[in-house]
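Example 9 (inverse folding). The structure is encoded as follows.
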């Protein structure tokens, strides 16, 4: 319900700011439809179901680390699949993020 409500709010906001005037259903490519379908199935249904499973299996602190790791995976995939550049600041941020996730997991392991 949260995801559906969030999507509906964003559609309404887009309509209110006039985004519909710049949208043509005929100009949406097959690649775009396939990407959207992938995001609906893998990014929403599968990932959210997996998150709920993990949330019931481990501590909330450990389960929440997905929110920190997912952007790192996205940056890596962007580099690998789309040739997006990765600078030293991005690498430093990724390293700090991974260290924070490690600290959360070590703390969760020692406290319970």
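The amino acid assigned to each position is listed next.
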């Amino acid at each position: 319900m949260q995801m559906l409500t969030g999507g509906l709010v964003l559609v309404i906001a887009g309509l209110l700011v006039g985004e519909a005037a710049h949208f043509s259903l005929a100009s949406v490519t097959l690649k775009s439809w396939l990407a959207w379908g992938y995001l609906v199935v893998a990014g929403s249904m599968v990932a959210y179901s997996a998150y709920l499973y993990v949330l019931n299996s481990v501590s909330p602190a450990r389960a929440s680390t997905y929110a920190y790791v997912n952007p790192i995976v996205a940056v890596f995939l962007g580099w690998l699949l789309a040739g997006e550049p990765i600078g030293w600041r991005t690498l430093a941020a990724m390293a700090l993020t991974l260290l924070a996730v490690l600290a959360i997991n070590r703390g969760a392991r020692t406290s319970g």
